[in-house]
Structures
1.
Amino acid sequence: MLWPLFLLVTAIHAELCQPDAENAFKVRLSIKTALGDKAYAWDINEEYLFRAMVAFSMRKVPKRETTEIAHVLLCNVTQRVSFWFVVTDPSKNHTLPAAEIQSAIRMNRNRINNAFSLSDQTLEFLKIPSTLAPPVDPSVPIWIIIFGVIFCIIIVATTLLILSGIWQSRRKNMEPSEMVDAEDKRENMITVENGIPCDSLDAKGGHINDAFMTEDERLTPL
Ligand SMILES: *[C@@H]1O[C@H](CO)[C@@H](O)[C@H](O)[C@H]1NC(C)=O
Ligand SMILES: *[C@@H]1O[C@H](CO)[C@@H](O)[C@H](O)[C@H]1NC(C)=O
């Protein structure tokens, strides 16, 4: 009678702690690197201490004061020590939000490191950056931002230059004495600016329109 229920409960527990499961965190330890000859073996007692340290950290979080060692589940422990852990609620049928675990671990990082004689580099909580670590190389984004700003300024300045050129040549076009000069300038503009209105080409009444006509006549038979 109780067997199905027992199986269901163990199945739920097995599901809660899994690699890449929701709210699960991976931990990687480099005990040999950190301690050399004085390295200790990672065994079930070390696991118990780790679970106790996580429970201790969680108990300082508001509304999580009742966290017990039994609520911290470890799984997929590997020989070259790495493992996953989750923290469950007292009913043990769902895991606590990752954000709460993250902040709890962060605030107690030094205590946890000291418990295992390890450092931020040799006791890694993947996906939980340590508070002491400097922000990830800020120089690269800043250079990208500066480059973007300069690029925008150049584009805006170029646009303004082109626009002022168009305005200037239009204004000079009104004065007959500088007609030739203006036409020279406008011809330059035409090569630079494709968006020049058609009527300004017509105003020239010159060879450009003829060129288009012949081009059209050549293309129509095809
Ligand atoms: C984690 O452990 C479970 C059960 O021990 C196993 O079925 C699963 O394949 C393991 N996953 C990884 C990624 O090692
Ligand atoms: C899960 O927890 C709820 C209360 O949060 C409880 O009512 C329910 O019975 C629990 N389910 C299992 C399978 O333990």
2.
Amino acid sequence: MGRLYLIQLDGGIYTCRNCGSHLAHCDELISKAFHCRRGRAYLFNTVVNVSVGPQEERMMTTGMHMVADIFCNCCGQIVGWKYEAAHEKNQKYKEGKFILERAKMADFDGTNFYLDAHPVGSDVDDA
Ligand SMILES: [Zn+2]
């Protein structure tokens, strides 16, 4: 560990809009029903090619969470955040999961097909 290398994914993938690094596979998508200050946001089981920043307490519309911003390993922009811990019992499913902001992602082929098709998940509001 500690060496910078980029993981290449196959199939339907989401990439960093800024530099094109692969960020997540569409199979890892849990929900597209999240929102952040800059618009829509998607919840993933796992993401790749990101660094996790320091943890901080953040008040969200669904309650207090311990979160950490995540950064693209290649270009350094903030692409979303990781849920380290949730205080509310019914929000515990998000622990260890990752949010990627819709505005920070692109589809691997530039069509946004995977970004905007197949809405999944329930209606969740978060910030
Ligand atoms: Zn990037």
